[in-house]
Amino acid sequence: MKLFNKHFFSRPEEERIVETIRLAELCTSGEIRVHLHTSSCTKPTMEAALDTFYSLGMDKTALHNGVLIYLATKEKQFVILGDEGINSKVPDDFWDSTKDKMQAQFRNGNFVQGLCDGIQEAGEQLKEHFPYESDDENELPDEISYD
């Protein structure tokens, strides 16, 4: 399957992930983003993920309820980061079940399914603390970002 530009996913795979984000956000006022770092990292994955979180403006949502799923493809590592609005309401192990679902798929090479499972789980978990409001507006793009 031909990859879409320099990206890790084909166009249909990328469209499937973006649609999963869109559907997950219909249940919550939270904002979910996926970022792929496709070259070698020059800093630890968590630090790179934090830098990306801020550079994407994920800390600028009205309720501070943005979630970033950051994948460092060369290092085969990923991080799930929630903004302070989420972190102030949930236990420290809040994202563990999401990480577990994603890892199970990633181990088998099912990266698209792993991301979709993680996005759906994030949306379900966010719904509990940040339910969808009728006046909710999509504060961040749903598209996958790359560097």
How would you sum up this structure, described in words?
- The protein has 147 residues and is α/β, with parallel strands linked by helices.
- It has one domain: Diaminopimelate Epimerase, Chain A, domain 1, CATH 3.10.310.50.
- The chain contains 5 helices and 4 strands, in the order αβαββαααβ.
- A 4-stranded mixed β-sheet has the order 3-2-1-4, sandwiched between helices.
- Helix 2 (45-55) links the parallel strand 1 (31-37) and strand 2 (66-72).
- The radius of gyration is 14 Å and the shape is globular.
Summarize the structure.
The protein has 147 residues and is an alpha/beta fold. It has five helices and four strands, in the order αβαββαααβ. It is globular.
Order of helix and strand elements from N to C terminus: HEHEEHHHE
What is the CATH topology?
Diaminopimelate Epimerase, Chain A, domain 1
Output the strand order for the largest sheet. 3-2-1-4
Extended strand count: 4
Number of domains: 1
* Rg: 14 Å
* Biggest sheet record: 4 strands, mixed
Supply the CATH architecture.
Roll
CATH class: Alpha Beta
Report mean pLDDT, rounded to a whole number.
Answer: 91
Total number of helices: 5
Spans where pLDDT lies below 50 across 5 or more residues: 1-5
Any chance you could write out the topology, listing elements then pairs?
Layout: H1 11-24, E1 31-37, H2 45-55, E2 66-72, E3 77-82, H3 84-87, H4 96-107, H5 111-129, E4 145-146
Parallel strand pairs: 1-2, 1-4
Antiparallel strand pairs: 2-3
